[in-house]
Automatic annotation (TrEMBL), chains A, B:
Positions of region (Disordered): 497-519
Protein's UniProt keywords contain Iron: yes
Stated name of the protein: Heme peroxidase
Superkingdom of the organism of origin: Bacteria
Organism: Roseomonas alba
Protein keywords: Dioxygenase, Iron, Metal-binding, Oxidoreductase
Pfam families: An_peroxidase
Length: 519, 519
């Protein structure tokens, strides 16, 4: 069979499975079970609390769990030298043929929700270990209260605080304009924005009052948060018309039930489907987890916290309707979002390609963050790259060419580490060849799949006796079923939807097509 | 077949199963699976946070989960009238033919570890929702630090603070003798002892500095805590000889791993085996839970917190080597324990019968606590008794005689509630006939089995990748395997073990023997 024919048949089978709901469900369950089954399930015996198993290590979730116990790796090259593996040669970005910038935009917003290493204390986390949209709702009940409007007035029940800018609804500003004073004294309980250096007042004036310390990171993360804020308030307003007897508290809580699950649906059915190399769509069928052996309490790991540093996905500059923005101007600055509005911001993200994830492709402006990743792995004493290949059911690399087919990357690894067994976790992960039809390298793809499925589908809102109309209302349950993609939510929440499809996958991408674009 | 012959065969089968380890394991798994499978598994959709399902209700474990949603029961008799159901007629206790007082002693110490309703706020709990011996080790890491000796000196690593009284080791006193000042400033972080009224100085002088607010409740609970304190320090001292290179922290943590699991083994193999009406012994085989569908995160329920109020088990006075002690003198007073020492205290508990659990059998001194239980159910808006029978797979009672075969109890229920469907949860639970060969009534036995098995065997120390010699050391793992009963631990920790067997079951008890004593 020719490659061309095989690719066509492969695609046809995917379409068939997609169209046949029952088979799609069975196939999803099989894929998810196989992915999660590639390694040991939770509870993990170790955490960053101690080098051995103990009660506090097994229960104190302000530490991070670990897939493998700590070791001292024998070769630790200077991070400045490791930069040779990450830096774009001649500053030239390799551009992805599959992903748009909506992919890194969503990845960052998603992972900032549950992967939050404490700065300067990389063995600790502020994570709730759940996909709970704490970026929108706050990390604690006290933060949630500060972000809520709290009104028993009809039409204003159950809302999050917001600010109208013409027809555009945004989160409130964190600071009173032109000052460093909070715009609302209740915001004192919020986590301060995480920034590397003091910001000029003009940038401070654009920051939003939101649930996380990181959702102001870029206009992309702020745009995601704005989208779900609008969706929350839209849903709350509709619930009030359906249930005029409900008080502020109940409208808020039920709207939150719905929005968190809409978000998880998008995680699986939009985001993960973009990541997988499979030509059929996985479905967020909660029942897959109800009787699964891997359904155990979530606990983010040191490895998961580190492997999600996908800075290479960012191009050197972001194309924006107001003109290209260099990366440095895109950090902790919501001015670009405010200038063009939500639909134009999503359209900008979806209409430009992301860069490829992998070695020799990190923008110069972000190289210092790669240094931190290398050091974070050492502080947490992560086992070498090959140990993780074995732990996740792969053969260890016996030669540098088994990590990367690119001779320059293999030579850099050889130069840095000398022996494939000495390659460190993070550099090895990023140096690997990307999997055909996926934006991710092989071990990274496998590790993401394990932690994503085994921690998204265990959400209590998806559990067997909660996943029903009583929890979400019949209207909300139907809305959940009808929502799969970011574009579904955007269309409900902007005055005018533009022509750009809101997709993480580029329009001309074809799975398995040898004539088409490749990752 | 005659009842006599059937009983003999039943007993013989039990002995056979006990002697045949493989069958015993299979039978244990079947019994546990059947028990837990009688009702819906976790996560529960409801908690005491709200009347409907919501994110904070599903995640904030300072509230209690619920098996059934809240309702307003139609008939709420004055608690003073409900006392007719609980009070001992003519003050005469019905004495158990199966249980010794070691049974209520252990039950109280065990449940104070994870069922801790906040006084005056009965929808809230301070529980960690695990069997973690927090009574011994403290409820928080800061409390644990206050209770530890913290010494790097050889021979003193990994110990809990203690005080020698001749050859007897006890927890330190909480207060400096004759004062209300703490004996150690670090004890300020401990939870204050939970007492109904101010105690005389002589009693304050006897209270121990311990992990919980309730382990000073009676000399029985203090004796349990003393036993496990001695076992911890004994194990820590031995670990130091095996691992002279371990520091204070590691010796402490590994000793704690071992002691928590010794405790859980005793919960299943001593305590639960006393409760079950089955003639064969259940084994604490952790693998039963590894692949079980009911293995979901623990969360104590409002119902579980209430059904464990077993005050009827207490006789009117406690026989003690120094003379009978009326119940009022047995509360928040460790003087009787200090006077006779640990072995004599255990012997006293094990050599006197408990009272029967059930209606018309609460000591006068404890009747006011039954009032609180009735009110606690109403504050938490528990569904009526019959709703719980249905939720746990039983037929609803259609007649008062289906609750109790005792005409006086049935008549009292009729007088209080008029209709079997109106009987409240707590009175109904306690009014039922006891199950043949068990100290517990039927619905109570079933509800205890569900929550006990599904929350004890999910302990992270028993989980698939933790339950091994690396966690406990080979010596500790062997010690765990060799320990099944309180007497095993006591024999290792007293200067002189007396002749009284340390048993919860009376020596002349025979299962299913119609000629023998009955519960």
């Amino acid at each position: 069979m020719s490659d061309w024919l095989e690719a066509r048949l492969f695609r046809a089978a995917g379409n068939l499975i997609d169209g046949w709901a029952w088979l799609s469900g069975e196939a999803s369950a099989a894929v998810i079970g196989k992915a999660v089954g590639s390694t040991r399930n939770r509870p993990h015996p170790w955490s960053s609390f101690s080098d051995y198993t103990c009660w506090q290590g097994l229960t104190d979730r302000s530490y991070l769990a670990r897939h493998l116990p700590p070791v001292d790796v024998p070769v630790q090259p200077d991070p400045e030298r490791v930069r040779a593996l990450f830096a774009r040669p001649d500053g030239e970005a390799q551009i992805s043929r599959k992903s748009t910038c909506l992919f890194p935009a969503f990845a960052q917003y998603l992972t900032d929700g549950f992967l939050r290493t404490v700065p300067g204390q990389v063995d600790r986390t502020t994570s709730n270990h759940e996909i709970d949209l704490c970026t929108l709702y706050g990390r604690t009940p006290a933060q949630t209260r500060a972000l809520r409007l709290k009104s028993e007035e009809a039409g204003r029940r159950g809302l999050l605080k917001s600010r109208m800018d013409g027809a555009e609804e945004f989160p409130p500003f964190l600071y009173a304009t032109g000052t460093k004073a909070l715009s609302d004294p209740e915001f004192a309980i919020l986590d301060a924005p995480l920034v590397d250096e003091a910001l000029p007042q003009a940038q401070l004036d654009t920051l939003f009052a939101i649930g996380g310390d990181r959702a102001n990171s870029t206009p992309f993360t702020a745009m995601m948060n704005t989208l779900f804020l609008r969706e929350h308030n839209r849903i709350a307003r509709h619930l009030q018309t359906l249930h005029p007897d409900w008080n502020d508290e109940r409208v808020f809580q039920v709207a939150r039930n719905i929005v968190i699950v809409l978000f998880i649906k998008i995680v699986v059915e939009h985001y993960i489907n973009h990541i997988t190399p499979m030509p059929f769509s996985l479905r967020a069928d909660p029942s897959v987890a109800w009787h699964a052996e891997w359904n155990r309490p979530n606990w983010m790991t040191v490895e998961f916290s580190l492997l999600y540093r996908w800075h290479a996905l960012m191009p050197d500059a972001i194309a924006w309707p107001t003109g290209d923005i260099p990366l440095r101007g895109f950090i902790a600055n919501n001015a670009p979002l405010l200038a063009v509005g939500l639909d134009a911001a999503f359209s900008a993200a979806a209409s430009q390609p992301a860069a490829k994830l992998g070695a020799r492709n990190t923008a110069a402006a972000l190289l210092h963050i790669e240094d931190r990743a290398v050091l974070q792995a050492r502080t947490n004493r992560l086992a070498p790259y090959n140990a993780y290949r074995v732990a996740f059911g792969m053969e260890p690399a016996r030669d540098f060419s088994e990590i990367s087919s690119n001779p320059q990357i293999a030579a850099t690894l050889q130069d840095l580490y000398g022996d494939p067994d000495h390659v460190e976790f993070y550099p090895g992960l990023m140096a690997e060849d990307r999997v055909k039809d996926s934006p991710l390298p092989g071990l990274l793809l496998r590790m993401v799949a394990v932690d994503a499925f085994s921690q998204a589908l265990t959400n209590p809102l998806l559990s067997e006796h909660v996943w029903n109309e009583a929890t979400f209302t019949p209207w909300g349950f139907d809305l959940i079923k009808r929502t799969s993609k970011l574009g579904d939510v955007l269309a409900r929440n902007v005055p005018h939807r533009g022509p750009t499809p809101v997709e993480m996958t580029q329009a001309d991408w074809r799975y398995g097509d040898p004539d088409g674009p490749v990752a």
